[in-house]
Amino acid sequence: MSPPATTSAKSARAFSFASINDGLANCANTAALIYHALPELNWAGFYFLRDGELLLGAFQGKVACVRIPLGSGVCGTAAARRETVVVPDVHAFPGHIACDADSRSEIVVPLIRGGTLLGVLDVDSPRPDRFDQDDARGLEAMVAQLLEASDFERLATSSS
Ligand code: SME
Question: What is the mean pLDDT of residues 153-160?
């Protein structure tokens, strides 16, 4: 895995997992790649669907909330809708869960394989309106690559 110098998630997707198919190892490196390759982030990481709710997984950033019910916050909303959610102003998002008070904008990409929800990728920024459609498409491409390369059986134990 060779992190490129870039400012947008669209161009940050040019990396590979080589022969590693462990879901946790690949999520940990993906979180680290995103956090260090993209500017103006204060959190990047994963929640996995576990017994009907989202459970904190591999991440970079400050200590975060551990469990998020489906439908709650930005993460639970993206998981329930099964679509990427871009929030330009977290203070204007009803039900936003403030794990880090510095967060001003956020993007959440659901992890879906074969119609099964496995979790979400969550990325936060201290800058308002940090994420655009290029970031959404880039992060979705990274998630698709991650899902193709990785085994999530031990991480996500219940589908929804
Ligand atoms: N803000 C998220 C909670 C997770 S933290 O940002 C890491 C939400 O509203 O779901």
Answer: 76
The protein residue with its alpha carbon nearest to ligand 1, atom 5, reads: 99
Q: Are 38 and 10 in contact (CB under 8 A)?
A: no
Distance between CA atoms of residues 76 and 78, nearest Å:
6
**Terminal Cα-to-Cα distance of the chain (whole angstroms):** 31
Query: Which pLDDT score is estimated for 12?
Result: 54
- Ligand 1 centroid, distance to 107 Cα (angstroms): 9
pTM higher than 0.85? yes
Q: DSSP states of the chain as a string?
A: --PPP-SSTTGGG----TT--BHHHHHHHHHHHHHHHSSS-SEEEEEEEETTEEEEEEEEES---SEEETTSHHHHHHHHHTS-EEES-GGGSTT---SSTT--EEEEEEEEETTEEEEEEEEEESSTT---HHHHHHHHHHHHHHHHH-B-TTT-----
What does each C-alpha distance from 158 to 21, 52, 81 come to in angstroms?
20, 6, 17
Q: How far is the CA of 18 from the centre of ligand 1 (A)?
A: 30
- Rounded to the nearest angstrom, the distance between the alpha carbon of 19 and the centre of ligand 1 is 31
